[in-house]
Every structure is written in C-alpha cells, then in structure tokens.
Amino acid sequence: MKKKLLTLALVMVLGVGLLGCSAPAANSGKEENASKTETTTQSQETVAQFSITLEGVNGKTQLTQADLAALPLVEKTIKMTKKDGSETGGVFQGYALKDVAKQLGITDFTSITMAASDGYSKAYDKATVEAEDSLLTVSLDGEELVSVVAGSLGSSAWVQNISKMSVVK
C-alpha cells in the first residue's frame, strides 16, 4: 500500500513539474519580445538632451533632440585603434549624419564643420557626411554622449560634446 501511494505521489509530482515547466516556456518568447520592445521604446525615450548651434542653415539657429524625433535611432559598433595601440569606441547609438543633414535641409554643401564645446573642431566633407558610419551620437555603450563619429576616419576626427555645426557651401 505504501509503495502504491509513494508511486502515485511521485507520478503526481512529476506531472505537475512537467506541466509547470512547459507553460512558462510557451510564454517566454512573448515575454522576451515585450522586453525587447520596452528596450527599444526606452532608448527612444532616453535620448540625450542637446542643443547644437547651427550656422549656415536657412532659418534655423539651433538643433535639438526634438528636431530629430522623426529620424530612426540607429546603433553601430565602431572601434578605432589609436596610434599607441589602444582601442577606442564601442556601441554608439544616434542618428545617421546624412539623415540629420537632410532633416535640416542641408543638401548643397562642400563640408560641415563640427565644433566641440572645448573649441576642438573638424570639417567633414560631403562624402564623409553621407557615409553609413558617420553618426550624430546620443550615447556610447549606454552612457549619454553627444558627439559626431565617422568610422571611416581616424579617432582624431571624432568630435565629442558637439556644440556647433557650420555649413560651408
């Protein structure tokens, strides 16, 4: 009698265990998708606040994150080896520089000079602005960073803490 009760209890425990384990597995895909959607939504909501002075853009003197809200937020891994052999870069999130230029109505230009708040500046020719790896970034590895990077150029062409964009026609 004890043997039958013990066997029955074991079967019930295994049955409940199997049923209990299989139900969440069916839902786990949905939970992961919801989590991915939240991450995407959060990244759209947590875009760094910035205000960049514009020169040479018709009728516009400031660029803010609100001006770029309609543009897709892209993520690119860009790494660069410095002269000393160390590596810089990481996972940048931001807006394609060519999309930013188009959004501002900048189509006919020879270069755009990007200037940092500390005075450092770099001129980007039209080909660099239109390159796939040129971004106006809002974060680096999840930390807020408003900068301009061009993966096709050396890290000396990356302008951190951008404060001004000047269009040269």
From TrEMBL:
Keyword Nucleus: no
Organism listed in the record: Acetobacterium malicum
Residues in the signal sequence: 1-25
UniProt-listed InterPro entries: OxRdtase_Mopterin-bd_sf
Listed name of the protein: Oxidoreductase molybdopterin-binding domain-containing protein
Domain of life, per lineage: Bacteria
Keyword annotations of the record: Signal
